[in-house]
Design goal:
single chain, D-Amino Acid Oxidase, Chain A, domain 2, Rieske Iron-sulfur Protein, 3 domains, 9-stranded mixed beta sheet, 6-stranded mixed beta sheet, 12 helices, 27 strands, about 30% strand, globular
Length: about 525
Amino acid sequence: MKDDTNKDITRKAAETELPDQSYSFWRATTELPSFPPLREELDVEIAVVGAGITGITAAYLLAKEGKQVALFDAGKVLDGTTGYTTAKVTSQHGLIYDHLRKHVDDQSAILYYEAAEEAKRFMQQMVEDNQIDCDWQEETAYVYVESDDKEFKNLEQEMEAYRELGIPGEWVESLPIPLRVKGAIALPGQARFHPLQYLKFLLMEFRVMGGQVYENTMIEEVEDGDRPRLLIQDQEFGVTCDKVVSGSHYPVTDQNGFYFARLQPQRSYTLAIRAETPFEGGMYISADEPKHSLRSATFDGQQYVIVGGKGHRTGQEEETTMHYADLETFSGMLLGIKDIPYRWSAQDLYSLDRMPCIGYVTSDKPNILVGTAYAKWGMTSGTLAAIMMTDMIMGRENRYTDLFSPSRKMPLLERIKTAVSHNATVAKELVTGKLDFNRRKADDLEPDQGAIIWHHGKRTGAYRDPDGKLHVVDTTCTHMGCEVGWNEAERSWDCPCHGGRFSYTGEVLEGPPTEPLKQIKS
C-alpha cells in the first residue's frame, strides 16, 4: 500500500451529482442493432430465449454447429442483467471455495474452479482469435476484509481452501489501491472487459451464420413434448422447435421445477465514476459488509472506475437511492470524484447452495434446458452455461453436468436453512403486503415521485411523472399475488417475493411474471 494511505482514505467526495436516470456505462458506449418482433408462426431446430450472455453465446455456438437457431428476447437484446453487470471475468467468486468444501465436497469445489477457468479461457480465446475490440485486460482479482473479525476468519479459511485445492491464490496484507485491509487473497490471471462490445461481435456473427433474432417477443409459456412449442403473449402464432434453451433470468418455463421457490432475487448498485486519483489496477470485492466492488474500464482514452455493491433482496427496500449515495461516499473517500456519468442497478438470482443451475429444466424434460442462478458471477457462469447446454444438445459429455444440474441433490441442512428463510419471507410478504401501508393520497405526490396510495377506496401504486401526469396501477403482482413496492431509484414497482419488476406504467421489466400490472384510471 502506498505511503499516502492516511491522506487518501480520508479524501472527501467532490461536489458531484448522481445522474437522474439509471443507465449503464456498457449500454451508453455500445451502438446495438434493433430487431423486429416475431410476427408469424415459426419452426426452427433450436429456440433460445433471453438475449444476454448465456443466450447470445449459446445461439452463436449452436449456429456454428450447423443448427437452425432463433433467439428471442422479451425486450431489447443485452438490456437485462448482462447489460448492467460489473463485467469481471474471474474464478474468484467471493468466499465460495471454503463454502463448497464444507457443504458439498472437495471434488465439487475444484470442479467449480475449473469450470470458471474454462469459461474464462473460452472468452479470452474468442477475443484473441477474432481480435474483438472489447477492452480485454488481464488483472489480478482480490477478495478482501477491512475490519470484520468473523469475515477475517472466513477469509483465512478461504485461503486454506485455495491451498488444499491447488488454486494459485496468494495471501496479501495490502492492496494496490489506497484502502486499508486486514487481509486479502490475490488471484492473478483474471480479466475485465467491455461485455457488450464482446457480445455484439458474437451476435453479429450469429446473424451472418443465418441466425434469427426477435426482440419485444414475450414467451408466455412452453408446452413440452417431442417438439416443444413456445406460446407468444397475446398472439395466436408461436414457435415449434426441437430444443429450447432458456438463458433468461428466471427460466422461461418452470415445468414444475419450482424455480420461483428455489431461487432468491437480489439487486445491487453500480456507479461509473471519473476519479481524481488514477486507478492502480486490479479487481476488488469485499468479503465483509457493506459489500463493495471495484474495477476500471477505458473508453475513448478515458479511464472510468466501476464501483458496485450495496446488494439487498429485491423489493425489500423503498429508499433505494441511498445505496447510490453510499457508493458515491465510498468512492469519494477512496479516490475522489470528478464526476459520475452513469449509475445503474442489476438483479441476479441465487440458488440454495450458491451454485448455478445449468441443464435440463427437470430430469424428465430433455428438450428444455436452462441456465440461471449465477449469483452475480454471470460472465463466467453464463458463458459456461452456453458451452454446457451446447454440449448436451450435441450429445457430447460434459464433466460439469452433474455438478450444476438443476436436479442435483443439495446438502440437506443448507437446503432447509436457506429455503425456510426464503419462503418465510415470501409468506410474510403475502400477508403484510396486503395490510402495511400508510393512506397517502394522489394529491400528496410531487412530480417524479411514486408511492403506495389510497385511491378510490383501495390500495394502489401511483407515480406522478415530471410533467405532472399521474400513473396508477394495481399493486398485486401478476405472478403469485404478492404486493409490489416502489423502487424510487429505478422508478419501478418491485415484488419482494420472487423479484418480478414492473415499469411505473405496469409493463413487465423482469420475470417471473409475464402479465403486466393492471392500469387504473386516475
